[in-house]
Amino acid sequence: MGRSSRACSVLRSPLLLLLLSLGCAAAQKGSTWKTLSGKAPAIIATGGFSGLFPDSSDLAYQFVQFASSPDTALYCNVWLTKDSVGICLPNINMDNCTVIADVFPKGKNTYNVNGVSTTGWFSVDFKSTDLDKVYLKQSVLSRPGYFDGTMLITPADFVFSQYKPPAVWLNVPLDSFYNQFNLSMRSYILSTSKQFVADYISSPEVNFLTSISGRVSKKTKLVFRFLDERSIEPSTNQTYGLMLKNLTFVKTFASGILVPKNYISPVTPDNYLLPYTSVVNDAHKAGLEIYAAGFANDNILSYNYSYDPLTEVLSFVDNGVFAVDGVLSDFPITPSEAIGCFTNLNNSKTDHAKPLVISHNGASGDYPDCTDEAYKKAVADGADVIDCPVQVTKDGIPVCMGSIDLMDGTTVATSPFATPAVTITDLKDVPGVFTFNLTWDDIKKNLKPMISNPQSQYNLVRNPRNKNAGNFMALSDFLTFAKDKDLAGIMITVEHAAFMAEKLGFGVVDAVIKALDDSGYSKQTAQKVMIQSTNSSVLVKFKQETKYDLVYKIEENVRDAAPSSIADIKKFASAVSVGTSSVFPTAKLFLTNQTNNLVQSLQTAGLPVYVYLLMNEFVSQPYDFFSDATSQINAYVQSAKVDGVITDFPGTAHRYKLNSCSSMGKNTPNFMQPPQPGGLLSTIPPSAQPPAAAPMPLLTESDVAEAPLPPVSNTTTAHSPSHAGLRMRSDVSILVTLLMLCASLLI
Questions:
Q1: Which of 269, 219, 272, 224 is nearest to 248 (CA)?
Q2: CA angle 443, 447, 452 (to 5 degrees)
Q3: What pLDDT does 721 receive?
Q4: Average pLDDT, the chain
Q5: pTM of this prediction?
Q6: C-alpha 18: how far from chain center
Q7: Alpha helices for 637-720 (secondary structure H)
Q8: Does position 8 have pLDDT exceeding 70, yes or no?
Q9: Closest C-alpha to 75, from 91, 92, 54, 61
Q10: Rounded CA gap, 55 and 330, in Å?
Q11: Strands 154-155, 232-233: parallel, antiparallel or unpaired by DSSP?
């Protein structure tokens, strides 16, 4: 079962283009680790970079050398063909990871696999030459399928001879299974060991490991793999959970153990962390190394990790108590970052230098928007700037709310105020219950905050235990809270100012200025005050009346800004916020090579640039960032050179600023180099390429210019349809209050 070196080189060529900018240096760590040996934990790439490419494919294995630590081991699940050739696949059922059902539609069979009747396509039914026409496909449906059908199955010896990695891990999922076919996995492994030296050989079967012990190279570590605790180990007929209590026995035939990560760090039924188990210390006391498996950035992580896979890895290697001896991951870039650049950090260090970490509705990835808990978390997590988007209540109180529609961030939908909702086309095309429909007391006493779930369509929700935690904050509360905190400043966002002036009779600009004056912000310099708006008219008015830093938010995705538009922006703003896609355009979640010069043009004109909105959930990120929020931040900082990031998860961005690789210059390790836009896209065959994205428009002066804000009207004489709706809401509010009063009297 062979492929020419020409085929291999063809696949390599676009991959090299992908990462031309990457270096090859590794970050060095001089500290002693809490592993058994005292050395840094090993990084093992499960099936190569299988989080992106089909598991055990050419690209998956090749990509590891570009996007991981240079000492990363390549991992191969070994299966035998009918003619005793070892191949690498993630699953015994080939239909799950190859197109074999299309090539051999009648090849389905049913076999007994360790006591379980299993139906599918099995390697034992095919000769290696049969499989030369069977292509791989992505085995995880949520991962990109653009590489399906482009790469052949990889022979196990190919991992040694073609990729020449620093280490190889051969995992033998089944041994006794092959006896019924007169095949011997033991013979295959011993034969291969005469030609190549595997650094690790693992298996969940005791008899297999004992049968090869002493017969392979002394450099090869034998590792006993634990499956689910209730599963039965076929050699001893004991459960793996019971065997975990007898590690001294395991030590007689293995030098290490491989366990699912939940053996070490279990979770509750609702997916929150429980205390660590003693299994790492137990293994080390028995003289066994312990490796943790099951790391994948696009899995559902414990809510304690805030959708940050780097935080998860660090909890296994840098928790102050123990470190596992190795990590097996589908995304080896993340353990590379953790071990190479993010251990032993001083998380209490505050550095308000660029890039600024600016919260979005507080730490809204962990708590409901704009609540006291969200702001406390943002400060504790190291945000440089915390933000307040200002809305107004019926009684004229400026409040911090992520949306003017209470349906978006409160429990109003389940409250007496839910109906009748009103449609105000100036604000939204759908019915809503707006902040100005209720008094501040209505909101505080009858509603609860509700955490935002921007990726709920993918069944990804945020911190359910705290979905209603915290208290609403008036602008005055926010200013009082922020004033004595170690912050570079605050950002106040003002939208819908013209609507408030004309339809509500409320001057939001004047109200914000007064609140800042009353809180003493206008007379201090310790924290800068930033005012952000998508409306130039708002910023013009603030510039006329204050000396605060004004941030123009470009709402549209644009490729660049015309010189005249930049000149106009400079008349009223001192910085600009731009969307992520205006910096790195995408097509079907791949970065494109479309050139966007927006950041450079703005910075050349003396305007700092902040990028919004960064989220940790992997579905919000292009594939080029490897489902890793840290990799995404790194690209915007190192490649785009933005001056700040606006994020729902300020803790992730703050930790990025502390990483020990940030000042390494030309010696920066490859896994901390930003991806080349369009590089990953270029590896997809032309026939499978997603449609090209249309060029983004240019920001022009007409996009920026606006009429001045209208004067504040007297709403007591207004009779527009929207005000009829507002009065209707007021009547309902009064009715609800009366009903509640009557109920209390009856009680």
A1: 224
A2: 110
A3: 31
A4: 92
A5: 0.92
A6: 21
A7: 650-658, 679-682, 701-704
A8: no
A9: 61
A10: 9
A11: unpaired
Tokens of 234: 């076929």
CA dist list (Å): 619 to 302, 361, 639 = 16, 20, 22
Residue of 144, 32, 126, 73 lying closest to 685 (CA atoms): 144
Q: Residues 276-299: what's their mean pLDDT?
A: 98
Q: How far is it between the farthest Cα atoms of the chain? A: 94
User: How far is residue 370's CA from residue 336's CA, in Å, rounded to a whole number?
Assistant: 35
Q: What's the rounded Cα separation, in Å, for the pair 63 and 50? A: 10
3-state secondary structure of 536: helix
DSSP H stretches of helix in 201-295: 206-212, 240-243, 247-250, 261-264, 279-285
Specify the higher pLDDT residue, 719 or 258. Answer: 258
681: its two tokens: 């896209």
Torsion of CA 719, 725, 728, 734, to 10 degrees: -100
Those residues whose C-beta lies under 8 Å from the C-beta of residue 482, and which sit 6 or more positions away, are 375, 386, 490, 527
33 bridge partner residues: none
Please state the φ and ψ torsions of residue 227, each to the nearest 5 degrees.
-95, -165
What does the block give as tokens for 388?
């307040």
DSSP state of 135: B
Contact 93, 64 (CB under 8 A): no
Give the type of residue at 657.
K
Average pLDDT over residues 244-272: 98
Three-state DSSP at 688 gives helix
- What type of residue sits at position 35? T
Q: Which two tokens stand for residue 274?
A: 């429980």
User: All domains of the chain, ordered by start, with CATH?
Assistant: 42-342 (3.20.20.190), 356-401+453-703 (3.20.20.190)
Of 204-208, 457-461, 534-538, 716-720, which gets the smallest average pLDDT?
716-720
684, burial (CB in 10 Å: exposed 0-12, middle 13-18, buried 19+): middle
Question: Kind and range of the H or E element at 310?
Answer: helix 309-317
